[in-house]
């Protein structure tokens, strides 16, 4: 008798194929779910593999458009960067994948969901917080946290032996000595030989971006048009190519950024679970958009609003990285950031060349830039004498502090 139905987040790889068969051994009916979020995958081969291994149903869901519009665009509006460097391509994708997994589980009457995330990483938290938020009654089966599973499968050799025994097709190509996660926004590389933080990444590691040294010797000139803080059009100025749907815009920016080696980082970051990890990431389109959005935002947003919004962007990044996309506080922060973007509108011209993005110019109908006011050649509606009082008022606090603390005569 079946213990119930479980929806398994399935990749078609060795780990989740073994998990599929293991769940069946435990007495569950298994529905597999594979999300297309822009990774290079043979989805039909994965479908056939899951069916041959006994999946009750197989769902392959194309989530690329909603990934861009519902998840990447809010991250662009927020200038979302974790710990000053990481654009969070994996963290932003997990709530997108988890949302559809829960929808399928509810629709199919499944009481359980399962995933192949390890017990040491962030992804287990991101997936499960999403599932509990959107399907509070759900039960989660996390094999890599179940002793009978992880004691049985201590490494890849154990998985391969189990696969051969149960007729699971095993990979015929040698496995890269690191783990990789790919989607439309980025590719991440970690583990294996990369766990030594001083070891340099091999030249053949990067799949999404060219080595900047080997990139074209002429730049691509782009114009990106924003409305409400999100791109609505990208134009290659020299080639006359334009894209105006969210998915097409982001895919094209990936293509141009990848061609010029933009968006590579090699960092050590702080996982939510409490350990440091080394990750190598390539985020070409996201890096171009971050630079362009920062520029148009500063051009059109009030200084004090931007100061508050900057803090909200940092908070948003931490919440998303830690898996709290569907929390009430993240919902609140997203609404505040969206409100701040109402006047973030206009066009940014930039050059993409040899691993770098160079801002060339910008224009906006909602610009707060007053050329006459700021000009050194025209006085405009500004009296320089007013600056004297402004400076003296700001000096009151400093003078009193140093006078009362007895520091005014000390060498600083």
TrEMBL record:
This is Argininosuccinate synthase. The keyword Nucleotide-binding applies. CDD domains: ASS (cd01999). InterPro entries: Arginosuc_syn_C (IPR048268), Arginosuc_syn_N (IPR048267), Arginosuc_synth (IPR001518), Arginosuc_synth_CS (IPR018223), Arginosuc_synth_type_1_subfam (IPR023434), AS_cat/multimer_dom_body (IPR024074), Rossmann-like_a/b/a_fold (IPR014729). One of its GO terms (cellular component) is cytosol. Residues 6-169 form the Arginosuccinate synthase-like N-terminal domain. The keyword Hydrolase does not apply. Residues 178-399 form the Arginosuccinate synthase C-terminal domain. Pathway: Amino-acid biosynthesis; L-arginine biosynthesis; L-arginine from L-ornithine and carbamoyl phosphate: step 2/3; Nitrogen metabolism; urea cycle; (N(omega)-L-arginino)succinate from L-aspartate and L-citrulline: step 1/1. It catalyses: L-citrulline + L-aspartate + ATP = 2-(N(omega)-L-arginino)succinate + AMP + diphosphate + H(+). One of its GO terms (molecular function) is ATP binding. SUPFAM superfamilies: Adenine nucleotide alpha hydrolases-like (SSF52402), Argininosuccinate synthetase, C-terminal domain (SSF69864). Keywords: Amino-acid biosynthesis, Arginine biosynthesis, ATP-binding, Cytoplasm, Ligase, Nucleotide-binding, Phosphoprotein, Urea cycle.
């Amino acid at each position: 008798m079946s213990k119930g139905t479980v929806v398994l987040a399935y990749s078609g790889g060795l780990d989740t194929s073994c998990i599929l068969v293991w769940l069946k051994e435990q007495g569950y009916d298994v529905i597999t779910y594979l999300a297309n979020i822009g990774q290079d995958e043979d989805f039909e081969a994965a479908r056939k593999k899951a069916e041959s291994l006994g999946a009750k149903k197989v769902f392959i869901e194309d989530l690329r458009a909603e990934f861009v519009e519902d998840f990447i665009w809010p991250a662009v509006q927020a200038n979302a960067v974790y710990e000053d460097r990481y654009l969070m391509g994996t963290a932003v994708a997990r709530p997108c994948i988890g949302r559809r997994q829960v929808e399928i589980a509810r629709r199919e009457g499944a009481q359980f969901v399962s995933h192949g995330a390890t017990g040491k990483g962030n992804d287990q938290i991101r997936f499960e917080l999403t599932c509990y938020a959107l399907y509070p009654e759900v039960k989660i089966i996390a094999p890599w946290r179940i002793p009978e599973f992880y004691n049985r499968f201590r490494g890849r050799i154990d998985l391969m032996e189990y696969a051969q025994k149960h007729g699971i097709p095993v990979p015929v190509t040698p496995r890269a000595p690191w783990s990789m996660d790919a989607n439309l926004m980025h590719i991440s590389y970690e583990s294996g030989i990369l766990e030594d933080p001083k070891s340099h990444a091999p030249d053949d590691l990067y799949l999404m971006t060219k080595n900047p040294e080997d990139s074209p010797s002429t730049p691509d000139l782009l114009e990106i048009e924003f409305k409400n803080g999100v791109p609505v059009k990208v134009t290659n100025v020299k080639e006359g190519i334009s894209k105006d749907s969210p998915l097409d815009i982001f895919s094209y920016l990936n293509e141009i950024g990848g061609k010029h080696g933009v968006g590579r980082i090699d960092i050590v970051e702080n996982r939510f679970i409490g350990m440091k990890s080394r990750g190598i990431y390539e985020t070409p389109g996201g890096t171009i958009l971050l630079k362009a959005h920062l520029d148009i935002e500063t051009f059109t947003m009030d200084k004090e609003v931007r100061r508050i919004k900057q803090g909200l962007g940092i908070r948003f990044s931490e919440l998303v990285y830690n898996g709290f996309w569907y929390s009430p506080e993240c919902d609140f922060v997203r609404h505040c950031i969206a409100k701040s973007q109402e006047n973030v509108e206009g066009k940014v011209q930039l050059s993409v060349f040899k691993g770098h993005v160079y801002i060339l110019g910008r224009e906006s109908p909602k610009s707060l830039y007053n050329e006459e006011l700021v000009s050194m050649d025209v006085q405009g509606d500004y009296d320089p004498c007013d600056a004297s009082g402004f400076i003296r008022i700001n000096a009151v606090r400093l003078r009193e502090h140093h006078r009362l603390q007895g520091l005014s005569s000390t060498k600083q």
